[in-house]
Design goal:
single chain, 305 residues, alpha/beta, Rossmann fold, Histone, subunit A, 2 domains, six-stranded parallel beta sheet, 9% strand
Length: 305
């Protein structure tokens, strides 16, 4: 870490922890540009429900990897790594500081540590698993994963069908579990970095989540979802099956009341925040910091070229 000018700076944290506001303030202070480390803000048509920085915020500090793909496009951690590498090179060539900001632990590690080196995919096997999930429910596949790789299964929510299928696919193709491949992440990192995780009281964080969900609804989240469906995007598109969007689709289809959908969103967002915190705690390289002390911590770093 001796060459701070060549190190990445990361501001990480769970959803609703205030990352955007703190990062924009910091970027202005240190001459930085922001790379969004968020698995949903990459989609152009999803703004309100992903808490995407406003146009004014994006104009005040240059942002990268926002509005990169359409909802019906596949976008993976590998795509993120490729585009983030390009953005880092571009930012550095213009003499700016790279500031990674977000809550996706998977995307962060894909960038700084490299990609999980499991076997290539098998479309036929994936189709078989998707058929089983449609017939028996996603919990059925999660139980199958528990049998062959309980360690990985315990880290994946039963409704996260993409990751459950991938873990089963890895075992099917290689005879090894995702956990067996995990040590490949312990090699030399791709980038030097300093990463701070915003530390908030758990109950205070949950209050922020509930308040933010209410504001999203007030600001037109339901209409955003309706517009996506009206534009012809399938409700089965992976981004629309994520928490929040899935519940509002159920409301628009008449399967649930709006109040019920909102409460489900709040519950699932709290659970998501808990999983984010668990992921960040597992990485001993990350430094936890009170948001009010973040700026002092970062400004003590020498970013001069």
């Amino acid at each position: 870490m001796s060459d701070q000018s060549n190190s990445l700076l990361a501001i990480l944290g769970p959803t609703a922890s205030g990352k955007t506001a703190h990062a924009i303030r910091l970027a202005k202070s240190i001459g930085g540009e922001i790379i969004s480390v968020d698995s949903r803000q990459v989609y152009r048509q999803m703004a309100i429900g992903t808490a995407k920085p406003t146009l004014e915020e994006q104009q005040s500090v240059r942002h990268h990897l926002i509005d990169t793909a359409d909802v019906d496009e596949k976008f993976s951690a590998a795509d993120f790594q490729t585009l983030a590498d390009r953005a880092i090179q571009d930012i550095r060539q213009r003499g700016k500081v790279v500031l990674l900001v977000g809550g996706s632990g998977l995307y962060f590690r894909a960038l700084v540590d490299g990609l999980f080196s499991g076997p290539a995919g098998d479309e036929n096997f994936r189709h078989q698993l998707k058929t089983q999930a449609n017939t028996h429910g996603p919990q059925y596949l999660h139980r199958e994963l528990q049998k062959v790789d309980p360690h990985t299964a315990n880290k994946i929510h039963p409704n996260n069908l993409v990751r459950v299928i991938r873990a089963l696919e890895v075992y099917h193709l290689s005879g090894q579990t995702m956990s067996d491949f995990q040590p490949t992440w312990d090699s030399e990192p791709r980038y030097n970095f300093r990463a701070y995780v915003l530390k908030l009281d758990r109950q205070y964080l949950y209050q922020r989540i509930e308040t933010r969900v209410d504001k999203m609804i007030e600001h037109g989240w339901v209409q955003e979802v309706q517009d996506l469906l009206s534009a012809g995007y399938s409700p089965l598109a992976q981004p629309l099956r994520s928490f929040g969007y899935n519940e509002l689709i159920n409301y628009l289809d008449g399967r649930t009341a709006l109040d019920t959908a909102v409460e489900q969103i709040k519950l699932k967002t709290r659970r998501y925040a808990k999983r984010q915190l668990t992921w960040f705690r597992a990485d001993q390289r990350l430094k936890w910091v009170d948001p009010e002390q973040l700026e002092d911590q970062v400004l003590s770093i020498n970013f001069s070229q």
